[in-house]
Each structure stands twice: as structure tokens, then as C-alpha cells.
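Cast an eye over this sequence plus C-alpha cells and walk me through the fold:

***
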Amino acid sequence: MKRYAPCLGLVLLTAVSAPAFAANTVHFAAHRAVYDISLARAASGSGVSGMTGRMVYELTGSACEGFTQNMRFVTRMSNQEGGETVNDLRNSSWEEAAGKRLRFSTTQFANEEAVESSQGDVRRPDPAAAANVDLVKPEKSQFALPANTYFPMQHAEALIKAARDGKTLLAASVYDGSEKGTKIYLTNAVIGKAGQAGGRKDLASLKDAGKDAGRMAALQSWPMSLSYFESGKDKQDAPPAYELSYNFYENGVTAGLAIDYGEFAIKGDLKELTFLPESPCAAPEH
């Protein structure tokens, strides 16, 4: 299973293209979200006949200390011959809120055997500058990321800001260190109007709908569809590696998750949502 996250119909409405890295005005709520994964569809030649699983995502930190993301994504996939494969993707990262540094570690297991891992540290002098990557796994190497490459939390912030401003399209190059730590994904996002895509129906699957949906009900959310393309001249005419769609709430919570890998697609229903203690910015010493 490929990592997640996330072809546009190229209906060019209001476009946002170049990154505009500004002060962090989006408040990301520290939270833990649990999604039940199931198969949405599979083509006859995909080799996939069924899938179940669970994804647990946790966000902690603040604009002062940076943001830590931890994610575990486990699926049990079956084929037409009755065989099963258990995929287990584990990802952890820390990102400075200003976008000058990113640390990441990703490991993927298949039937409890590690099949891929990446680990590294990325630094740059300012959020829009070229970045230097020190890769530790799968092997030690150094390389540069082009200027105006988004880190994951920067990208999330840019999506929410674009949605608030009524933008309908955001194009961005995104790097998160996954898939051997060398890939940059070219992403195109289509952003719908607030309140579309079923309103708050995406929270109906929560176990504690009264508590958690109540806190979420007053927040704005936007339906988003993101296509992820692999960078490189040889990839220019290729279809997206995958497409990701969800409702994105202004506090950083996602619901109504769907991932389309081409030959098959999966969905993720938000089952549990726990808000974690906030990490307030420390007052300056006098």
C-alpha cells in the first residue's frame, strides 16, 4: 500500500499556485483521530477482493514548539485466490511551525516484515528557500529540495487559508520524507464551498457523536480533493499516483476520507475523535 495523503479536471477557476508562506494564523487543534478503513471499489484486474483496517492519527504541539504528527495505518488486504497481506505503515514527524525544519521517520511492514523505511532531517534558512535534506535511511545521502516546496503542516495551513479566502484551486509541491525519502509530490487541490458534501454527516460515525460532533459543529469545513503526481519529466503525462478527498475542518481535523489508487479505492470513516491538551506558547521571561 502506498502512503497516503494526497487529475484535476483543469477547470481553472480561482487559482493559487506559488506558495505564500505567512505567519501561522490557523489554529490546529491537538487531537487523536481513529478511522475505520474499508474497500470502496476494486477493478477486476486489481488483485484486490477485500480490505479492512484502521488508521490512527495524532497531532500535538503548537506554533511555538512545532507540530508533531504520528500516524499508524494498518490494513488487511485479500485477493481473489484467498491470500491475505497485512500492511502496516508507521510515520512520525516533527515540523517547525515556521517551516524551516522537518524531521521524519517512516517504516512500512508487510506481514510483519519491514519492507521500506526512511528517516531524515531537513533544514532551510527561511520557509520559501531551497532546503537541505540529510537522509539517514534507507541510506545516508544529502540532496536539495527546490525553493517553495511545502512541508506537510505548511501545506495543511495553505489549504485552510485558501479555503477561507474562497479559492478553489491550490497547486503545490509537497515533501514529507515518505517512500524512501527522495520523492517530491506535485499536488493539485480542488476546494469546494464551506458546508458542501453532506454538511456534518461526515461526523455521524463517531462513537461519541454528542461530545465530539458538538465541538465540531460550529467550525467551518470544506470538501477537498487532492491529486498527487510524482515529479520528474518522465512523469509529466502520467496519471496521479493517488487521489485523496476529505472534508477539512478549520481546526485541522479531517472526516469523510477517501483514497483512490486507480485500480482500487478505499474509504475511512471517522470513528473516534479525542481532543488532547493544548501546548500553549510560553510567556516571555522578564
Notes: Residues 152-164 form the longest helix (13 residues). DSSP finds two helices and 16 strands in the chain.
